[in-house]
Amino acid sequence: MSSDVLRRLYPEVEPYESGHFDVGDGHSLYYERCGTPGAKPAVFLHGGPGAGIAPAHRRLFDPARYDVLLFDQRGCGRSVPHASIENNSTWHLVTDIERLRAHLGIEQWLVFGGSWGSTLAIAYAERYPEHVSALVLRGIFLGDRASIDWFYRFGASEIFPEEWAKFRRAVDTPGEEDLIAAYYRRLSGPVDSVPLEVARAWSRWEAATVSLLPDTERERQSAEARNAIAVARIETHFFANDCWFEPEQLLREASRLAGIPGVIVHGRYDICCAPGNAWKLHQSWPQSTLRIVEGAGHVFSEPGITNELVRATDMFAA
Predict the structure, then answer these.
(1) Domain ranges in the chain?
(2) What does the alpha-carbon distance between residue 9 and residue 254 come to, in Å, rounded to a whole number?
(3) How far apart are CA 7 and CA 4, in angstroms?
(4) Whose CA is closest to 255, among 151, 145, 122, 155?
(5) pLDDT at residue 3, as a whole number
(6) 223 phi and psi angles, rounded to 5 deg
(7) How far is CA 165 from CA 6, 160, 201, 312, in A?
(8) What is the structure's pLDDT at 174?
(9) Which one of 4, 208, 230, 279 is most buried, by most CB atoms within 10 A?
(10) Is the dihedral of CA 51, 55, 60, 62 positive or negative?
(11) Which class is domain 17-144+244-317?
(12) Quick one: which of 4, 6, 3, 61 has its CA closest to 32?
């Protein structure tokens, strides 16, 4: 195949196993396994935090060469309790990944993460490097104050001023600059008391800015009550707590990735997560290869990003 032919997702594939896994703390995670049992093990980490897995995520891996675990993180998707922020932090999730690995009897696996999933993948790999054979990361979010401020204080707001105005109006806080705190106050109560329009406003800001061109279907999905409530509650919970990281922790501890090969894929015009994040991670991790995709934003479904991700999983399968 010519190297200039864009790779696409693999054909649709159904899980060969699915169910729920009790991780304690009152949480049970929905999971599925796809591909060929006993083939190269991999785990897929979805974005958000607060989103969930989707059938298209299975198609990033060659089903003949991979045995992939996909799961909904705490409070997300089909995991229960839905939209829960109790006992839900970055380090709870890192521990969950390790529990799943041990439960499956896997010694090492490829860790794939996009957006928030990239944050989680880096955090997991820095804590358990001996169990990571390779990393494939997309749309790097470092979970630090600079990255959070770029999207929720000043940066993205200058590129999408009309969407930012809607985002601010939803919490009606004239003069207040900490919009994360303003949203969190309204969203952190009991799930059944969450003001739906506030949750939708939070979710819509993200949906309106993550792709290079407008995507009305993504914006429609972001307004669905179940999705909006989970994303808005869990994201504000994580970001109000600085994702439970020390300042610049992931970059400072990147030396722990030494010896782990990896591919970093990032859209040139990613407004959600600035390309500088990918560059800084690449500079801190010599074994990584950086692929900046021209004419692309944040989401994995943009053709250039899909191409690089599928090429990466194929390379590591070989």
Answers:
(1) 17-144+244-317, 146-243
(2) 30
(3) 9
(4) 122
(5) 63
(6) -85, -10
(7) 37, 9, 11, 38
(8) 74
(9) 230
(10) positive
(11) alpha beta
(12) 61
Predicted model pTM: 0.97
Counting every residue written for the chain, the total comes to 318
Residue with tokens 């819509």, as numbered in its chain: 204
Q: Quote the Cα angle for 88-93-98, to 5°.
A: 145
The residue assigned the tokens 């290869």 is: 289
* Tokens describing residue 139: 């749309």
Q: Is the dihedral of CA 43, 46, 50, 53 positive or negative?
A: negative
Nearest 5°: phi and psi at 198? Answer: -70, -45
Dihedral (CA of 126, 127, 130, 132) sign: negative
Low-confidence ranges of the chain (pLDDT < 70): 1-3
Question: Mean pLDDT over all residues of the chain?
Answer: 96
Question: According to the model, what pLDDT value does residue 260 have?
Answer: 98
pLDDT by residue (tens digit) across 207-223? 999 999 999 999 999 99
Q: Is residue 50 within 8 Å of 75, Cβ to Cβ? A: yes
Q: Taking the chain, what is the end-to-end CA distance rounded to the nearest angstrom? A: 15
d(CA 36, CA 68): 8
Q: Residue 86's pLDDT is what?
A: 98
Which residues lie across from 133 on neighbouring strands?
none
* Spatial CA neighbour of 310 closest among 32, 59, 33: 59
Identify the CA nearest to 210 among candidates 218, 199, 201. Answer: 218
